[in-house]
Amino acid sequence: MGNQKLDQLKKEYMDTPIPQELDFLVRKTLKENGVYSIPNKKAFRRLGAIAASIAIVFGIFIVEINSSPAFAKSMSEVPVVGNLVKVLTFREYTVKDEGCDAEIKVPQVQGLKDKKLENSINEKYLKEGKELYQGFTADMEELKKNGGGHMGISSGYEVKTDTDRILSIGRYTVNTVGSSSTQMKYDTIDKKKQVLLTLPSLFKDDQYIKVISDNIKKQMREQMKKDKDVTYWLDDPEIDPSEQFNQIKKDQSFYINKDGKLIISFDKYDVAPGCMGVVEFTIPTDVLSNILVGNEYIH
Amino acid sequence: MGKKTIEMQIADYVMKYQDSHYRLAYSIVKDPYDAQDIVQESITKAFSSKKSLKEPDYIKTWFYRIEVNTALDFLRKRNKTVLSDEEMLSDQDSGECDQYTDFDLRKALEDLPVSYRSVVVLRYFEDLKIEEVAEVLNENVNTVKTRLYKALQKLRITMNDAKEV
After folding, report:
1. How many residue contacts between A and B have a Cβ separation below 8 Å?
2. What is the mean pLDDT of chain A?
3. Residues 6 or more apart in contact with residue B135 via CB below 8 angstroms
4. Taking CB atoms and an 8 Å cutoff, what residues of chain B touch A32?
5. Which domain holds residue A92?
6. Which of A263, A291, B100, B115 could form an SS bridge with B84, CB 3.0 to 4.6 Å?
7. Do both A91 and A193 map to the same domain?
């Protein structure tokens, strides 16, 4: 009988939730003490468990969250969900009116412990979504006044990367008036440190602009050589030099993929003709290793 | 055995038992962030005092000891000094045989002074031997036995087998 009580207590003790960051912190501490290369088995095991719980919980979540605030609240109290940083559709604007179609999905990030960061990201998303919608309706009125026509806008998001460390959210806006233009914007969050990563923050100094640009030019040339249908605005004597790809912007769109590789993204028309669409370049890590602040994110 | 081997052994041990050590730290400091700090600090202390690990076989008790001390130091620094002597325990005696119908066992455990709680945690949850508990807490075996006995009394747990205590 006494043992039963102890067993119960022990069970509760063993159920103490283990923070996701623990494994990372332990590794970091070991590293700080000069011990490297610890086998990674444990992390994988835990990652599997988390992935499984995402799969189970997420399916229900998407259906229920808009319909029942009480349910959403009760779900957020389930400990495992509390640990998860996730992206949901927060608001949807839909317009269907005489040849004018708009579908704007505003994402929302949830589950960050740093609520200030979470709010600032979500406010940005909501503000940009609203502006897009208002801009569209204004354009629509204008178009109607001038005798009508076709225009459309489609905006949404996709989770590019979701590991236990990194969350990369890509938001796209496709504007259709005659031809279409596409814009991509990315936000990459370090879930463990709870910070929004910027491109400059990954590197020791501004050298990255040149290093990355040179690598992209090299890749562009290789691709054009291999495939005659591929065109970039580079080394083309027919095009004004100011229109040619020179270098990336300091805050060029980027994200980090699940393999820890840096991906640089260009909007449609930015560096290539429209038929190329949105283009992405994977920058090989060995090109960057000397100028990276660390190998936490990119490796 | 070279120095490096000891370091690797410590690292392997820490990686393998990090969850256990987190739970122990949490049971003492009751805060997930503080508990993680305790684990990190304990690891660093373990490396800086690796010379005190005479025999790699004792790494478990050795590490528990570092961790418990780190956690207790932390509590002291936080000014939430948790008294651990008999007086404290008797202060909590609320009288004769108060019989709650829904006696909250877990709360009772949490209300125990930390030195009693850690005895219970180490002996029954972490499954250390009495001698090991004594080693970890740097007390003699009889003190540990007494604390364990009193703690169980407080928790209203009567052990069928007195030998287990």
Report:
1. 88
2. 78
3. B61, B65
4. 44
5. 85-197
6. B115
7. yes
